[in-house]
Amino acid sequence: MPLVNMKDMLAHAHRTGYAVGAYDLVSLHFLEGIMEAAECDRAPVILSLAESHFRHFDFTLAMAATVAAARRASVPVAIHLDHGESLQSAIDAIRLGCNGVMVDGSHLPFAENVACTREVVEMAHGCGVPVEGELGYVPGVEGEDAKLHPGELSMTTPEEAAAFVAQTGVDFLAVSIGTVHGRMQGTPRLDIERLAAINARLDMPLVIHGGTGLADEQYRALIANGVAKINYFTALSDAAAEAIRRNAAQGAKGYTGLTEGVHVAVEAECRRMNALWGSAGKADACLAACRPWREVEHLIIYNVAGIDEAEALERAEEGRRVLGAIPGVRRIEHGVALRPDARYRFAWLIRFAAPEVVGNYRTHPDHVRFADEKFRPVAADRISIDYEVG
Ligand SMILES: [Zn+2]
């Protein structure tokens, strides 16, 4: 149940002066460790899945476990697509259960970043899902040595940030003020004055990528100046690897022996950050400030006239394909009544990501075409109701 609206969660953090850990997960061990830490610390948490990591695991399967973990949590949880690479990535992520998305156009020139981000915002807001944009370039790759990916650091300016937010409608902004993705040598120098100016100008939750390896007082300065979400992966990855090396040194041979305790190592590192960033102990206050994430079951029961059963099922198959691709549709099922004498022979069960999807689905051109040409003319005898669920 405590899957919550991420916009409410980060607004609470921003307003009351703490940052939520957005921990990238790459395996069940990470998922377990992150959630154990959040539960022990009574901390709100963001389960983050980065598209650059999708070659390490099956995103669809990982999302099933991630949604299950969020739904059984007692602390507020949001599920976020980190560094989505395209509009389609964001659509897919929302279909699989992400209730926050980031599409990263920060490597593009300003106008192109605006255009690509705005497209994602229009789609995601139509699904009730908030969007993180990034302006200014944070070089490097999650979990790798920063010096292997020496991109040009390009810092965010307050003027550009204000224009970007106004033109795109993003809900959170990742800023570049000196951090680098991955492992760095030495402590990065942060431009806190720049951050303070951006925060004063925008007054919205700011996000830091490349959160690994900062000094404690640097984290505190970030949070004091508007940072409400910190993306964190490299240190978790290193802690997990250290646990595996320790097991190997003690003679562990098989996979289960080598990975024994990885979730404990991840948990310990998350707990350290939850305490440092002030999210520990905030679960109840945050939960009270957040709308729960509710989905919608769009239920249609119907009979056909003028076509036979085989044709009805063929059209249902087409509907499943066409309607299932509309943004905000999480699941689409078509069924035939078990009993031949049922009052209604067929059913559609269509799960929407959020109530906002209902109207947008109805007016989506693919839905309009299918409904007008293939469904309504043969299914006048029908009942259709939207139920809020979850
Ligand atoms: Zn990042």
Give an account of the 3D structure.
This protein has helices at residues 6-16, 28-41, 59-72, 87-96, 110-125, 158-168, 192-202, 216-224, 234-249, 255-258, 262-277, 283-289, 309-324, 357-363, 365-375, and strands at residues 20-24, 45-50, 77-84, 100-103, 131-135, 172-175, 206-208, 227-232, 295-302, 329-336, 346-352, 382-389. 48% of the residues are buried. The chain contains 15 helices and twelve strands. It is globular. The mean pLDDT is 94. The chain folds into two domains: 6-289, Alpha-Beta Barrel (TIM Barrel), CATH 3.20.20; 295-389, Alpha-Beta Plaits (2-Layer Sandwich), CATH 3.30.70.100. The longest helix has 16 residues, at 110-125. Helices cover 44% and strands 18% of the residues. Helix 6 packs parallel to helix 7. By secondary structure, it is α/β, with parallel strands linked by helices. The chain has an eight-stranded parallel β-barrel with strand order 1-2-3-4-5-6-7-8, surrounded by nine helices. A four-stranded antiparallel sheet has the order 10-11-9-12. Residues 83, 181, 209, 231 line the site of zinc ion.
